[in-house]
């Protein structure tokens, strides 16, 4: 009968959804992570390079300012030394003038003393003369 005819082999193929390829998912994740890590590394490097450039500019500016200040200090020291030399010269000149004035005053005091002594002698002679005339 019919059963005998149907007792042959039957094969059934089923198109099922393929299984998730875990290895491929991990590879995709790893690649995305590497891309993100490289992007972050490049951004950090760019920020670092920019910061270094700014610091180098600040160091250069500060160095120029330092040289300018050093130059100003040297100039002012030179001016101060010149002024100190001029002051010493003026003080020496003043001392010389004061000494000259003191010498002149002493000389005139001596002359004045001599004149006063001469006047005293003349007055004494006049008194002697009057005294002699009255006698």
Automatic annotation (TrEMBL):
Which processes are annotated in GO (biological process)? Answer: epithelial cell differentiation; intermediate filament organization
The Gene Ontology CC terms held by the record are: intermediate filament
Where is the IF rod domain positioned along the sequence? 1-135
- Give one GO molecular function term: structural molecule activity
Keyword Coiled coil present in the record's keywords: the answer is: yes
Please give one Pfam family short name. Filament
Q: Which residues form a coiled coil?
A: 23-54
Q: Which keywords describe this protein according to UniProt?
A: Coiled coil, Intermediate filament, Keratin
Summary of the function given for this chain in its UniProt record:
Plays a significant role in maintaining keratin filament organization in intestinal epithelia. When phosphorylated, plays a role in the secretion of mucin in the small intestine.
Q: Which PANTHER family match?
A: INTERMEDIATE FILAMENT, KERATIN, TYPE I CYTOSKELETAL 20
Please report the name of this protein according to its UniProt entry. Answer: Keratin, type I cytoskeletal 20
């Amino acid at each position: 009968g019919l059963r005998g005819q149907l007792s042959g082999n039957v094969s059934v193929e089923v198109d099922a959804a393929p299984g998730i390829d875990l290895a491929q998912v991990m590879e995709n994740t790893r690649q995305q992570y590497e891309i993100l890590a490289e992007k972050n590394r490049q951004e950090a490097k760019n920020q670092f390079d920019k910061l270094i450039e700014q610091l180098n500019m600040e160091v250069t500016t500060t160095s120029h300012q330092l040289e300018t200040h050093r130059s100003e200090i040297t100039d002012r020291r030179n001016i101060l030394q010149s002024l100190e030399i001029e002051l010493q010269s003026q003080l020496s000149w003043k001392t010389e003038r004061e000494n000259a004035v003191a010498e002149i005053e002493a000389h005139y005091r001596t002359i004045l003393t001599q004149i006063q002594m001469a006047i005293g002698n003349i007055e004494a002679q006049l008194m002697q003369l009057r005294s002699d005339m009255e006698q």
